């Protein structure tokens, strides 16, 4: 059953400017994400996915508590720190880029009891 849907869009130029500030990447990306995100487009995609995921949560979370990695087929895979996701929750995420924007949609799905 779909429990929540979140969506976010971000201007890649805004993220590119933020990346020039010391410590920005360390504040929003995990170490594993930093190893993969070597362009403003990839960082913007992670930003959008994390913002979309936060919209699905009943309480606030920090950016580094949400991780968006790459799956076996190149698809984005979202995971949260233990305790943030409801039991049996499954996260679906998609990220898209168009010109100077990155967008993401996140769905939280759970199995009904």
Strands side by side in the biggest sheet: 1-5-4
CATH top level class name = Alpha Beta
Number of DSSP strands? 5
CA-atom Rg in angstroms: 14 Å
The H-and-E topology, N to C, reads as EHHHHEEEE
Q: From the 3D coordinates, which CATH architecture would you assign?
A: Alpha-Beta Complex
**Proportion of strand residues:** 25-35%
What is the domain tally? 1
Mean pLDDT: 94
**Residue share in helices?**
25-40%
Q: Gap between N and C termini, in Å? A: 10 Å
Globally, the shape reads globular
The CATH superfamily appears as 4'-phosphopantetheinyl transferase domain
Could you list the spans in which at least 5 consecutive residues all have pLDDT below 50?
A: none
Major pleated sheet: 3 strands, antiparallel
- CATH T-level fold name: Ribosomal Protein L22, Chain A
Which structural class best describes the helix and strand composition? alpha+beta
How many H/I helices?
Answer: 4
Task: Describe it.
The protein contains 4 helices and 5 strands; from the N terminus they run βααααββββ. With 113 residues, it is an alpha+beta fold. It has one domain: 4'-phosphopantetheinyl transferase domain (Ribosomal Protein L22, Chain A). Strands 1-5-4 form a 3-stranded antiparallel sheet. α1 packs across α4 (40-54). The longest helix has 15 residues, at 40-54.
């Amino acid at each position: 059953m779909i429990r929540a849907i979140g969506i976010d869009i971000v201007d890649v130029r805004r993220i590119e400017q933020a990346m020039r500030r010391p410590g920005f990447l360390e504040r929003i990306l995990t170490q594993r994400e930093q190893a993969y995100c070597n362009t403003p487009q990839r960082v913007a995609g992670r930003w959008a996915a994390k913002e979309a995921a936060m919209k699905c949560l009943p309480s606030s979370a920090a950016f580094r508590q949400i991780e968006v990695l790459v799956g076996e087929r190149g698809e984005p895979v979202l995971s949260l720190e233990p305790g943030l996701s409801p039991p049996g929750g499954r996260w679906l995420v998609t990220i898209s880029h168009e010109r100077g924007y990155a967008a993401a949609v996140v769905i939280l799905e759970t199995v009904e009891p």
